[in-house]
Each structure stands twice: as C-alpha cells, then as structure tokens.
Task: structure prediction
Amino acid sequence: MTAPDTGSCRLAAVRRGSIVRLTIYGVIAGTLASLVAVLVTAISVVSAVVLAKNDDAGKNPLRIAVTAQQFAWKFEYPNKTTSGSLVLPVGRAVKLTLHSLDVIHSFWVPEFGQKSDAVPGIETTLVITPTRIGSYSLVCTELCGLGHATMRAQVQVVEATDYQAFLKRAASGDGAPAAADDGAAVYTAAGCGGCHAFEPAGTDSAVGPSLDEIDSGGKPLDAYILESIVDPNAVLAPGYQGDVMPNTYDKSLTEGQIDALVQYLSDGQGGN
Ligand code: HEC
Ligand SMILES: [Cu+2]
Result:
C-alpha cells in the first residue's frame, strides 16, 4: 500500500464515520451476545448441578452433615443415618454443612463446580441443586496428609423415590456402608485402606504396616487391634512412626463399628 491510498481510505471512513462505527459496534455486540448464549447453553449442558447462592437455599433445603477426617468422608442424613457415600435426590436444593475432625480438607465434586473447605472447629456450608442423575466423584483437594490421594467418596444423584428407598435401607442397616456395623464396610468408610494393605479388603497401601499379619507382641490379638485403633501411639509397630495414624477413631466411629472392625481384622489374620 502507498501512503495516498491509506489517506483516502481514512478520509472516506471519517465521512461515513458514525454510521460505520455504529454498524461495527452493533456487529460486535451481536457476536458477543450470541457467544455468551452459546457459552451459557454449553455450561448448563456440561454441568450436572445448578448452584444456588449460599443464602438462597429455598425454604426447605435437604440438610446433610458432611464430616471430613483423614482420609474419609461421612454423610449424615436428616433421619440420622450415616453413609460413606453421598446420595442426593435430583432437583432438590441441598444444604451441606461441612465439618472436619482433624485438619483442613476440601470438598470438591468437579461437576458441582464449587469447592468448600472443611475446617476444624468451624462449620462451612455449600448449597447445591443437582440437576442430572448420575454417579460422580467427591475428592479432597486440600493436601491433608499421607492418605490424601485416597480421600474420595462416591456421589450419586438419584430419583426422589430412590433417595427415599436409600434412606430406608440405610436406616435398617441394610446396604448402607457406614451405618451397618459390618467390619469390611467400616474399614472402607473410615479410610483405613488409604494407609494399610489388607488382603480381604483388597487394599495395598504401604504407609502403615500390612494388616494381614499383625504381630500383637504376646498380647491377646483382639485387645491389641482395639488398642491400635483407638490409641495408635500406645504401641508403635516396629519400623513405623507415631502420629501418622489418625487418633480420632474412638470419636468418629461408634463402639459397634470399632468392634466390627476389630473382628474383621482379627478374622483376616493368616495364622490365626
Ligand atoms: C494415615 C495413615 C493411616 C490410617 C488412615 C490408618 N492407619 Fe493404622 N497405622 C498407621 C501407621 C503408620 C501405623 C504404625 C504405627 C502405629 O502403630 O501407630 C499403624 C498401625 C496400625 C495397627 C497396628 C498394626 C501392627 O502390626 O502393630 C492397626 C491394627 C491399624 N493401624 C489399624 C488401622 C485401622 C483399622 C484403620 C482405619 C480405621 C487405620 N489403621 C487407619 C497408619 C494409618
Ligand atoms: Cu482431606
């Protein structure tokens, strides 16, 4: 291009100035608007959950208490039953109240699009309305210790009738992991597998000693296992450090659950 050409172009543009500019702005605005519309549609299609604002839980949200602990999640429903997985009815506003028994954890279901920390001594909340039936994963996104990577739980969004059925089953202790005092279920729900190998449970983590052959050091086996769970620092397994295994199980598990766990581990001993 030569200079005179540019000059005449500019002259023409100035003469038609306002109209041209208006048209251009109009086109840009139109494009932006349709882009935003496309994005909004895309986001609502991809996201399984409509987020309500924290202060907009509706009149009667479903309230579920979430307890985080190294390295497991526990959910308590309005009828007081608990479970190691989160089951939610589709289309209903849910207010999750988050607690931690030890360190800071962070509740994150990628499809829910929003995180909330679980902080010891503080109650935090998360309000969501799941809009799509399906199975999702809850992960802890706060590096909370050695078993952090295993601190996961399943989230299921189901029809309202299936949710009611789940609550009934959970209340009767049938098929609800942490509610039933079933040692295997307690082992999974309490996150023991995040640190221990135990063949009957199919876990192979090596942060703590393998539980396949527990050496009770001459004590009665059940008593030794019980002590190891409720007071982990009382006797340290040779070659392992104290203050690694959470010392909160006597608070977070019921007596029945601990008994079931002791039974489960003791039954699983190779030599006994
Ligand atoms: C963060 C990791 C971690 C978690 C989670 C954990 N433990 Fe441990 N556990 C350890 C470590 C480390 C030791 C060895 C040190 C000690 O004895 O305290 C241990 C020791 C034990 C022992 C004694 C084993 C022996 O041979 O003396 C038992 C039994 C046990 N754990 C059971 C459990 C059960 C049951 C759970 C779940 C309720 C659990 N642990 C959760 C890390 C963990
Ligand atoms: Cu965590």
